[in-house]
Amino acid sequence: MSADLTVGGVLSQVRAELASLAFPFTLESSVAGATARDRAVHQLDDYLIPRYESLDAPLLAVLGGSTGAGKSTLINSLLGTNVSHTSAIRPTTRRPVLVHHPEDGHWFDASRVLPDLARVRRAIDADMDEPGAGSTSEIEIRATRRVPVGLALLDAPDIDSVESTNRALARQLLSAADLWIFTTTAARYADAAPWEFLAEAARRRIVVAVVLNRVPPGAMAEVRADLSHRLDDAGLAGAPVFTIGEQELSTEGRLPAASIDQIVGWLQGLSEDAHTRARVARQTLAGALDELVYTGADVIDAARASLTLHTSLAARVDDAYAQAHERISAATADGSMLRGEVLARWQEFIGTGDFLKSIESAVGRFRDRLGAFFRGKPPPEEEVEEAIETGLYTLLAAEASRAASEISYAWAREAAAGSLLQDARAHLPSSEELAERASQTVRDWQRDVLQMVRTEGEDRRFTARMMSLGVNTLAVALMLVILASTGGVITGVEVAAAGGTAVVGQKLLEAVFGDDAVRRMAKNARTNLEDRSGALLAWHASAFRTELTSLGVDASAPDRLHDALLELGAARTREGLVS
Hints:
This protein is of the alpha/beta class. It has helices at residues 7-20, 28-53, 71-79, 106-109, 164-175, 192-204, 220-233, 261-272, 274-331, 341-350, 353-361, 366-373, 381-412, 418-427, 431-460, 463-469, 471-484, 492-498, 503-513, 515-550, 557-575, and strands at 59-65, 97-100, 118-121, 138-143, 151-155, 179-185, 207-215, 241-245. It has an eight-stranded mixed sheet, sandwiched between helices. Strand 6 (179-185), helix 6 (192-204) and strand 7 form a beta-alpha-beta unit. The longest helix is centred in the middle third of the chain and has 58 residues, at 274-331.
């Protein structure tokens, strides 16, 4: 990255790298990593990037808290009009309500903050929707002069709502805030849910005010003292605590003005002084940047765990099909293919076993006798070619199926890869499709060998001799030599392995083309066979590899995110945006 990048430029890169991370497996670390990634991306979009780009924008104060804590009653009381439902029906707040001064409208009409929430603009005195109405994918925006310039209030859903979408939205909105007005009650301030969020506020060094609502008569001092002690222990010693005693609400369901005067004064003090607003914004921004780095490190660890599993699964595929290819290469070079049907058809083709013995005992006279032997009507070499085809495609199909079975067994041992294995098996070619593809692979190879022999004969002007023997005969002979040797020359060991059946083919080819040409053709034909068998295996393996690719795992993404976070630290130091 460039040393000239601003914090904003690096934040955009961090966001891109976070978004590129995939957590496709059901690992425990993956679930946590994906959740942390999504929260970090939301905070970058909702708060970090827009706040950095607009440090002079109004402060966003989010009213958060537990179910029934009185958030909606508080915001209605602060505004002097009802914009949020107070009801026994849960949840009451679904579509969050943001209220700002009319002069600050341009900061919130566009998608500067909370860009994934659709804007619903309403007048301050417009009727409210029915309780529970609205959508968590929207944000309602109203304007009133009761809110000071430079400040906006946002009523969020309950942090412990019965609906998971509400809980997620509440967390998202709190993460997008410059400051929190956290509302709780004397009966519920010690619950675990609020303190989980307050601990996060302490880590981020966000400005927090706690509203202790519905305090019974005579319990004010005791409850307030206990709450303040808990805030000190949580790292929020400087957080102001505003207490509201139990009292009758107005006919409109709002608190008496006197009970919220201190809160109003605190909010006005924050908004009226530009220096104070800037200090709050920078403090919260710096704390959120620290939290992003910590979260990013956790996400990187989780992503690397997923990457390790992905790499292991991919290696299983590569190893299984590579070993299948090696077995095919070995089986097509050690003479084992020249047994059974191939051997029987070849012996029928060339004659009796006595003929083979005569060839072995009188190799020096082979060239003269060979021409005489083949002047008669050529036997049906097609039968030999068909036997070779059957043997080869059976071998190819068997090795492909074996590789798939080995992969299935290995993947099945990884519980987190269960759905991946199921999808891969669903896309594996059927046995019929595999047999047809393997058969076509062998036929294509045989066609290439035939063309190779034809081309070699034309280049050497052996057309007449080849015509007397038959191009197909020479091609079959070359196939036999390949299936009995690796270098185009059959050794004594290979003669024993192949039962001597390929010797006739080799001598026939040497008689027509010479030793060097036979070696060259055998090498090229073997390479062609190995390439085609490799292509068949790659086609069969694609059912596994395609599933792995579809997971979107980028092997370099964790390292890129790590580098981006390091650059973020350097950029913050250059700009003095540190806590």
